[in-house]
Amino acid sequence: MYSKVNKEYFNVFDFTNFSGNIVTEFIISGFPRLQRFSLLLFFIFMIIYLFTITGNGLIFFLINLDRKLQTPMYFFVSNLSFLDMSYTSVTIPRMLVKFSIGFEIISYAGCFAQMYLFVSFVAVECLLLSVMAFDRYIAICNPLHYHITMTRQLCILLALVAWIGGFACPVTMLVLALRLPFCGPNVIHHYYCDHPPILQLACADTSLNVMIGSSLSAFVLLICFTLVVLSYIKIIITVFKISSSSGRLKTFSTCGSHFAVVNIFYLPLIFMYVRPTPSYSSDVDSLVAMFYTVLTPMMNPIIYSFINKDIKYAFRKTMKC
Predict the structure, then answer these.
(1) pTM of the shown model
(2) Which of 95, 162, 213, 241 has minimal Cβ neighbours within 10 Å of its Cβ?
(3) Rounded CA gap, 6 and 251, in Å?
(4) pLDDT digits over 239-262, tens only?
(5) Which burial class, exposed, middle or buried, applies to 87 when counting CB atoms under 10 A from its CB (0-12, 13-18, 19+)?
């Protein structure tokens, strides 16, 4: 994915936005074959975006309003809802501008800011899902020590580690990318500024950037995913030790929402950033990226509202007030 492709791959050149030989603006050309459906796409993504912001905002509001939801699990769920509102706002609004008025230009600084914020939010979600898996592991495997272990101070500390760690991880990647020269072309074959397609446009050797980007991606994704898998292996072993089937179902239902979110988030992300073959296909990768940039933030409020009875009860109680 991170490999540098031949410059002949780009058949669109725009030299009007160059200052000397330095690119000052980029053109985001994501999904060029669908431009004739731009109005339809605008309404589809507008609905998705409004639903994502409203759904996650409602969950965040309910958890912080209802005292019965002031538990470690829902504290992390509220963090996840705020995070989903944040990182979906990094990509979708610019897509809406593109589909509505056809404006495809993004400044040099704006492009790198979008890249850094998006990668940071994705890293935060990886770390936060690992923390949530640890919380479920303690709740199911060590229930007698749960309230002693998962204190409010520890929950705040774990959340801070996830947020600070997520924003710290891409700093090296960003600094190295900013040092690269960009002299043309300036067309990004993706629907937002991501690290791999930006490297495709550099006029210098990007092997160091490839190595750092791949290493950071593998470290964050695989380590976090491994911690989640290990937590669920222990959870499943503990659940199967419960004698009654109703008891097993009730116990496992407490982490069903988190398990669903983990699957729809990690699988496409691992496909995108950790592959045995370093290739980049704009159409395929843009489509896969839709899962964790658009669909996952939209699905989270659905999963937590439809599966979780506590959220549904808090919502009904709030509506009666």
Answers:
(1) 0.84
(2) 241
(3) 54
(4) 888 777 777 777 777 677 777 778
(5) buried
